[in-house]
Amino acid sequence: MGTVLVAGAVWRFGRGLTVGAVVAVAVVCQVPGLTHAPITSTDAYRYVWDGRVQLSGHSPYAQVPLDDTLAKLRDPILFPGLSPTQKSGVTGVPKNPAQLPVDDARTRINRPGVPTIYPPIAEAYFTVVALVTPWSAGTLGVQLAAALIAIALTWLLAVQDPRWAALWGWSPIVAIEAANAAHVDVLAALLIAAAVITTARRPKLAAILLGAAGSVKLLPLLLLPAFRTRRPLVALSTFIATYLPHVLAVGILVAGFLPGYLDQEGFSDGSSRSAILALLLPPEARQLTAAALAIALAALAFHRTRRDPIALTCCWLYGAALLIATPTYPWYGLPLIALAVLAHRPEWLAVPLAAYLAYASFGHPTRQGLIHLAALAVVVIVITLRRRIVAKSGLTAPPSATNTDERDTTHRHRDLGRVRRTASG
């Protein structure tokens, strides 16, 4: 409800907002989260550990937090029940990591018996933060870094449109998941937004940014169909290039615990995901249906991006992907909030909001499915009403700054083509 109230207030009273005002309030919104340890998850402790491990010359893809060979890296904040001189009994990577428990009372790091799941750009980010953060600060370093990224993205969005940017910078979801929980998804959101904004004037740079976003969290790669011509190849090349140093260092171990994580979380077989589909289909049919829907949406995005603004295509493609997979972790929706701002489509804010309600309903799959279904209903109803209003009035929605840039670039290319044809004739 907090996000909805912020959206309504900003839209009603925000006509006179300036870039400075939006950013200033965004700074204030981030401060409370820094005063408390992460609330919504323990991921930040893994971030701190991964950065510390890399600074020590080891690889988080090849060693697990409980590994006794890394005992000297333990401290009372990350390992309240295990000192550097105590033995955990763990050495090397376990043979069946997916069968290990998620938590261990000796440490605050989740899944301490398995390697990391995070891609290389995320790992590089953790390392940089660890380099400038003393051990005694615990998670404060990654919390502060996430808050600064959220503020930077607020500025980037405010340059496009201050009023719309407030929906990101002042969002309670962003305040909780950035400054408090320090989720790395905020970095992915920044890179995605930068890719969308720069795609008209510097398409290769935009593709590189998208590939880098995919190397923070894999989900941004879902946006590849929205980037036309050769851009997906550049994005994929960037993504692959980030893995090469780690492949050379640890080989196939570079996959970390990602396959096991996908299995544990139900992404591999659809047994505990696709909450909306679960209301109608048995487990064995969900994965096939979800895959078919994903392929259809990708094809539609590739087709529509030739006529629609890329911000709009990315927004509904990312939002639809979340509605299909329905991850219960609300921080997965951070990039969608940024895309909704760029596309001027506030109805998609219902999706991350629904994820929060579903997160609080853990263990109640039917309730979770109904919550996500309600978000889908909000999106469909608003889109339908908007189309009817536009059809009756004969008006079109005003383009965002990124949309205008893209259309201007298209017109410039057309004009240049006419000049060339005239000269050759």
From TrEMBL:
Location in or out of the cell: Cell membrane
Basic residues compositional bias: what residue ranges?
Answer: 410-425
Stretch list, region Disordered: 396-425
Q: Which GO terms describe its cellular component?
A: plasma membrane
Coiled-coil positions are none
Q: Which residues cross the membrane?
A: 141-159, 180-200, 206-227, 234-258, 285-303, 310-332, 369-385
Q: Name one GO molecular function term.
A: hexosyltransferase activity
Which UniProt keywords are present, listed alphabetically?
Cell membrane, Membrane, Transferase, Transmembrane, Transmembrane helix
Q: What is its main location?
A: membrane
User: Which top-level group of life is the source organism from?
Assistant: Bacteria
Membrane topology value: Multi-pass membrane protein
Pfam families given for it?
GT87 (PF09594), MptA_B_family (PF26314)
| Family as reported in the entry's similarity comment | Belongs to the glycosyltransferase 87 family.
- Its protein name is DUF2029 domain-containing protein
Phylogenetic lineage: Bacteria, Bacillati, Actinomycetota, Actinomycetes, Propionibacteriales
